[in-house]
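Consortium newsletter contribution from the modelling node. Members have asked for a concrete example of what our holo predictions look like. Here is one, prepared for the zinc ion complex that several groups have been discussing at recent meetings.
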Amino acid sequence: MHHIQSVSIRTAVRLSLAATGLALCAAALGAQPARGRQAPPAAPAQPDFSQVQVRATHVQGNVYMLEGAGGNVTVQVGEQGVLVVDTQFAPMADKLLAEIRKLAGDKPIRFVIDTHGHPDHVGGNERMRRSGAAVFGGNVRNDDPRGEQGAVVIAHENVQFAMIKAEGTPQATPDANWPTETYTGDQYDLFFNDEAVQLLHQPSAHTDGDTMVFFRKSDVLSTGDVFVTTGYPFIDRANGGTIQGIVNALNRILDITVPRDKQEGGTMVIPGHGRICDEGDVVEYRDMITIIRDRIAAMAAKGMTLEQVKAARPTRDYDGRYGATSGFWTTDMFVEAVYAGVRDGAGAAK
Ligand SMILES: [Zn+2]
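And here is the predicted structure:
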C-alpha cells in the first residue's frame, strides 16, 4: 500500500506514548542495559564545521552527491525544482544550500527525504525546508500544522516514532527537524522532475526506519547508512537495527543495480558515508559482511561466548580496511552487534 500520512500522526502517537510514559521514563533512565540491550553508541564526533568545505560531484543523469560533514547528501535537480536526500548536521545547512544554488539556480527545494533519523543525516532539515516551497496538487500535500509552506520532508513513519520516543533525552531531535510527512509500509513513489523516484523501506537494518531512494531514470540509488564504504556497518540495535537486516539491504541493493559491462558502471550507488560505488563495489562489501556473519554464527552455534568470539577475531582479514579500535563504532562493537543478532536467531544463516 503506497500511503502517505500527515503529521497528525504525531498527536496520536504522543497520546499513545503518554500511556506508556512510565516505561519510557525507565528507558530514559538507563533501564535498557538492564534488559540486556546495549546503550546506544555516542553519535559520530562532530568536526569543526567552519573548516569544512562542501564538494559536489555529478553522479549520473539529474543526480549529484554533496560531501561535507555527516552523511552524504543526494540532490536531484530538474525543471520542477530540487529534491534533497539527507541534510547532514545543522551547521552545514547554509554551505549545502549554497552548493545547491550553484547546481539549481533559483529553483526551489520541493522535497527533503530522510534515509533515517540520525543527527548527521537530518540536522539541516529545518533550514532546507524553510528555504524551499511545497508542490501543491498532485499526490502530495503539505498540511504541516505549523502553517509553514516550505519543502515537504518525508521519512518512514518509524523515523518519526523514534524521534517522538527520544523527546526529552540527550538524543532528541529538535521538532523543527522532524518530517512533515511519513509513509507506512514498504514503499512510497513520487514522480518528480520527469523521473520516477522510489522510496524503499528497508526493515530492521541500520535502524528500523531506513529508506533507500531510487532515481529510476538517472539510474542512481541513494542508500543511507545500510551501506557505507568507510567502515563496518553501524547496527543501531537500540533503534531496531540488525545484522540480518543489513545483509538483506545489501542484497536488495544488488537486486536493483544493473552493471553496464564487466561489472563496471551502470547503476550508481551513493552510500550513506564514503565514495560513489557501482554494483561491483557492493558485491564485495555484501560478500564480506555475509562471511563475517556466517563466521560469527558458526562460533555462536558452537557455544562460544562473546569474549571468545572477539578473541577469535572473526573480522581479522578485513580490519585493515574497515576496522576501528576507537571512535563511536569500533570493530568490537560491530562483532558484539552481529553476535547478538545471530544468537537471537535474527541473523541465522540462510
Ligand atoms: Zn546513521
